[in-house]
Amino acid sequence: MKKIFALIAASCLSASVLLCGCSLPFGGSNGRDGVDGKNASAYDYYELAKSIPGNENMTIDEFLREYLNYSTEELEEAFGLQASINRSLRTAVSIAAQFNDGGTSLGSGVIVDLNKQNGDAYVITNCHVIYNDGGYGLPYPKNIYLYLYGQDTDYNDDDNRFNATLVGSSITYDIALLKVTGSSLLKNSAAEAAKFVSDDDIYLGEDVYAIGNAEGQGMSAVRGIVTKDRESVPLNISDRYAGYDRYTRYYNVIRTDAAVNEGNSGGALFNRKGEIVGIINSKSGDDLDSNGNLLDDVDGMSYAIPASAVKRLYPLIKESGNGNLNRAHFVAQDDFNKADAGSLSSQNQIQVKSIASASTWDSANDRLVINEKINVVRDCYGLKAGDLITHIKITSGGTVVEDMDVKRLYHLNDTLLSARQGHTVVFTVYRGNEQKEITAQMNFSTFD
User: Fold this and answer.
1) Does 245 or 74 have the greater pLDDT score?
2) Are residues 48 and 169 in the same domain?
3) What is the pLDDT of residue 303?
4) Residue 268 near residue 281, CB atoms below 8 Å
5) What CATH number did the domain enclosing 361 receive?
6) Which of 117, 169, 205, 448 is packed most tightly, with the most Cβ within 10 A?
7) Three-state secondary-structure class, residue 301
8) In this structure, are 263 and 402 located in the same domain?
9) Separation CA 267–CA 108 (nearest Å)
């Protein structure tokens, strides 16, 4: 309908121009050949409209409202998204990681902390962008180069790149943190730091866009929606042990149909406000048979590590450096079912399982909401088998670190990443029909 109206408006506009004695800037003027104006864009018609007496100072917004009947909401959507993407491009970097064996990994990253005056920054990317265990030397790169938007056309140009060092990384979450110090390029750039979304929940159908260095061809943006709010996908980031199932990790991810490719890894997935909702880390690929013939042509299935985990992992890596990372003992049912539940590594951990109830309709926001029951599997830390966890609160002295309702399993998983040695963790549970608060001084274990 909008296209039909646009054609009518364009015809009326052309007639107005002819009546005022102005000339059309594109071929044809009588409409008889059926192709008049076919090579014209909306901006051509905008310039044409400004040639009508009285319209000299007309803005593009006024043109779209008057001649193309766009509403205020439609204009805000169109120009708001454009502005958001352009702002986000200023937070993005392309990455070239050079390894000791001579190989180079191309990927993406996003600036999450920036001191323009000093030229300092912290950048988040995927662990697998800066990790390569295929050789027998160090698995981490000897050089890490970053490129801002517009500088990523020549990866060998020293004038258009700046160095970064590895602060730390986590294979378990496929996240790495890079640091930039004293970069004159950053000082004199338009770079900005991106912000994480505050809400831990991402809903089906949300508009998102990804920015990254697709196929190593420089920064670009792709748009899509969230097609699944959470799921678990397998990924083996080992080069030495590629194809070995025992080196496969399972990652809790958001699924999107945004068309990402190799090189997008480590780049951010943003919402319409330009807030980070995830870090792109993989996509469903095409499977080949033994003869190299295509078995499945998979499109529109890309994955991102959720911001709810990344924003809590970021300060943990920053504090720990490239040493051991520590997190509160916690095992979900899927984790300990894959190993011996009686082993020492799982004996002193909180073990839970989640059971999703039927989805409910949130009429205020026009969306489906999944609620899960988070049940404790066995007695531990004062919790009893069968307890239903509904809330978690983490405090440090008199300071509240986290205060979160537990409606999905990831609320519990991700929130516990904020716990540190000496913090107090209080679980609110239903034990039968009785609500209880259970205080637990958590033990911690290392993870890679």
Assistant:
1) 245
2) no
3) 93
4) no
5) 2.30.42.10
6) 169
7) coil
8) no
9) 5
